[in-house]
Each structure stands twice: as C-alpha cells, then as structure tokens.
C-alpha cells in the first residue's frame, strides 16, 4: 500500500491561498500608505475633512473598524468628493464583512476619480475574496494600466491567476512584482509555489530559499521548501525543513503531515505515526492524513486502528465528492480485512 503524495501540491496551493500575507486578504499597510501618499493634494482646502480622514486611518491601523468607519463617513460629509476617504470607508466595510457595501463605495470613488489606481486595486481585493476571480482580474489590470509599476497589483493579480490554475501567467506577474519590490519574501514564496506547480522544482527551491534569506522565520517557506525536497526524494533535507517549520510554527499541521511522510519513507513508521496523529489533532478534517496514517498502521500490523482511520478518510473524501479516493480506500480496507481473515 502506497501513501498518497498528492497532499504536497494540494497543501502548497492551500497555503498560497490562505495565509494573510499571501492571498486575498487586504494588506493594510500597503493600502493605507497609498491613501496617505495621495490624500494631501485632494483636500487642502478642507482641514477638518483631512483631520477626520487621518483619524480614520489611525483607527483602522489600530483595528477599531467601527471608529474608523465613523471617522471616514464624517470626512466624506465634510468633503463629499474626498476620494481617499471613500477608499478608507470601503476598506472598513469590507473588513467588517460587508463586501457588497464596500463594492458600492469603491465604485463611488471610481466615479469621482476614474484614474486612481488604488481604488481599482482595493476593489479587486474585495472581488477576489468573493471568489469573483475574473472581475478581480479586470480591476487589477485596470490598476496596472494606470500604474504599471504597482508591485502589489502585480502580486495579487498573480494570486488570482494561480488560483485559476494558470501557473505560467502567475509566474510572469510574480516576477514583475519581485522586480519592483525585490525584498518581498512573500512574493518569492508564492513564485516558488507557481514554479512547483509547473514541475520546476529546482527553480522553486531557489525561490523558497530566497524567501527564507529575507525572512528566516517564515514557517510556510520552510514548509514549501521541505515539500519540494520531498518531491525530489531528498528526505534528509525535507525532514530538516519540515522540522524547522514546526519549530517556527508548532501548530503547522501540514508540516507534521509532511514530516510523517518523510519519516515513513525513511523507514521510521512509529515516528511517522506520531507525526500524523499530531497533524490530525491540529486539523481533524484532513482526509489525506487519515489515509496515510491508516496505510502506515496497516503495514505495522495494527489492522483495527488502520481501518478506523481509513474509514474516517473515506467519510471525508466522500463529503468532498472524491470518488477516486473513496474507491481506493474501499480497496485498502478490503485488503486489510482479507489479511485479517
């Protein structure tokens, strides 16, 4: 019985789409710095509106979204054409889980200033979070048509292209983002993911290492590097980076699962079992981890526990409508039962 190693690519894709700094979450620092840079000439004749805008910006940075919303609304009341205040208001609405209201406000800002690239960029972020990927792409491209050197627009456009399983196009945009901001570890990590998806493991490894050179405590980059080493059959290197990812992030379930795979391949099934169980304790709905644990237990002559874990994997695969894996689990359970009898 062979472990299912599809978890590696799937896990890397998942990481790219879920981490706060790598995908569709709003990059508060970037957005606010853009607002600050462009705000001053817009309302030089209304100091009260500027003061309210700055108050809203500070409250937003502090996480006081309700307070920020009130301040931005007051700024707009004082200066109805204050585009940056509309952007700030839309940001706060989106962060409060009100994306449709945010979209309406972004569109109002666009109607006031159709040449402000920041508005299109932020609108793209909100649309991407709603999984309206084509619409998000259109907004990012509009931002780039107005500001070709907008590194963050290139980066987030790449994320959407990657989510659409267009790694070659994503690579081009990540590369552009890095050219414009060559010290961004998140972009190197994401570029590594896109190269990995193309099967370009050596190039992926080089970019993961580059990410780590700028951010040595970047747990996900260590995890991704380990996964690339594992895909190359370099178990010693993979184990070292899985272990480092866990040291940096003790709740990194995928790193425990990956470490379990590598330990099992090294002929250390008991250590593998312990790591699989740790991964499950952190993320109890990962079908592949139950599946791999069940296989290892079966080989270690622990049929009852193996079947329990395989049945759990089957349940999760079935809920995901993964018929191929359901059938594979059924075959394994049948083999174990045949051996028992």
Please report the first level of CATH classification, the CATH class of the domain at 15-215: Mainly Alpha
**CATH architecture term of the domain at 15-215:** Alpha Horseshoe
Helix vs. strand class: mainly alpha
Work out the strand percent: under 5%
Number of strands: 0
Can you write the helix and strand succession as a string?
HHHHHHHHHHHHHHHHHHH
Percent helix among the residues?
Answer: over 70%
| Silhouette | elongated
CATH fold node name of the domain at 15-215: Serine Threonine Protein Phosphatase 5, Tetratricopeptide repeat
Overall residue-averaged pLDDT value: 89
CATH-defined superfamily of the domain at 15-215: Tetratricopeptide repeat domain
Describe this structure in words.
The protein contains 19 helices and no strands. The chain has a domain at 15-215: Tetratricopeptide repeat domain (Serine Threonine Protein Phosphatase 5, Tetratricopeptide repeat), CATH 1.25.40.10. It is an all-alpha fold.
Question: What labels describe this entry?
Answer:
mainly alpha, Serine Threonine Protein Phosphatase 5, Tetratricopeptide repeat, 77% helix, 341 residues
Helix-strand layout with pairing:
Blueprint: H1 7-18, H2 28-39, H3 47-62, H4 65-78, H5 83-95, H6 99-112, H7 117-129, H8 133-146, H9 151-163, H10 167-180, H11 185-197, H12 201-214, H13 219-231, H14 235-248, H15 253-265, H16 269-282, H17 287-299, H18 303-319, H19 323-340
Helix pairs in contact: 1-11, 1-13, 2-3, 2-5, 3-4, 3-5, 4-5, 5-6, 6-7, 7-8, 8-9, 9-10, 10-11, 11-12, 11-13, 12-13, 13-14, 13-15, 14-15, 15-16, 16-17, 17-18, 18-19
């Amino acid at each position: 019985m062979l472990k299912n190693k599809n978890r590696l690519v799937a896990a890397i894709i998942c990481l790219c789409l879920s981490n706060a700094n790598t995908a569709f979450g709003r990059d508060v620092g970037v957005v606010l710095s853009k607002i600050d840079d462009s705000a001053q000439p817009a309302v030089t004749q209304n100091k009260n509106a500027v003061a309210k805008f700055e108050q809203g910006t500070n409250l937003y940075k502090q996480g006081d979204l309700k307070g920020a919303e009130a301040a931005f609304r007051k700024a707009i009341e004082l200066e109805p054409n204050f585009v940056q205040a509309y952007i700030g208001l839309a940001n706060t609405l989106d962060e409060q889980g009100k994306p449709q209201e945010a979209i309406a406000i972004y569109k109002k800002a666009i109607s006031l200033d159709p040449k402000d690239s920041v508005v299109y960029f932020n609108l793209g972020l909100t649309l991407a979070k709603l999984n309206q990927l084509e619409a998000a792409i259109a907004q990012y491209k509009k931002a780039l048509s107005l500001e070709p050197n907008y590194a963050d627009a290139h980066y987030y456009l790449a994320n959407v292209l990657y989510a659409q399983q267009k790694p070659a196009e994503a690579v081009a945009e990540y590369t552009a983002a890095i050219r414009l901001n060559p010290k961004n570890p998140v972009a190197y990590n994401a570029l590594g993911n896109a190269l990995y998806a193309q099967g370009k493991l050596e190039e992926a490894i080089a970019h993961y290492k580059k990410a780590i050179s700028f951010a040595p405590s970047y747990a996900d980059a260590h995890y991704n590097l380990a996964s690339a080493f594992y895909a190359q059959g370099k178990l010693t290197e993979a184990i070292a980076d899985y272990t480092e990812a866990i040291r940096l992030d003790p709740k990194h379930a995928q790193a425990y699962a990956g470490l379990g795979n590598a330990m099992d391949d090294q002929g250390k099934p008991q250590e593998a079992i312990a790591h699989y169980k740790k991964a499950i304790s952190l993320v109890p709905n990962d079908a592949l981890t139950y599946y791999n644990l069940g296989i290892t237990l079966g080989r270690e002559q622990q049929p009852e526990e193996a079947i329990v874990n395989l049945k759990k994997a089957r349940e999760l695969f079935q809920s995901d409508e993964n018929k191929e894996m359901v059938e594979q689990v059924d075959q394994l359970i049948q083999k174990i039962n045949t051996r028992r009898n």
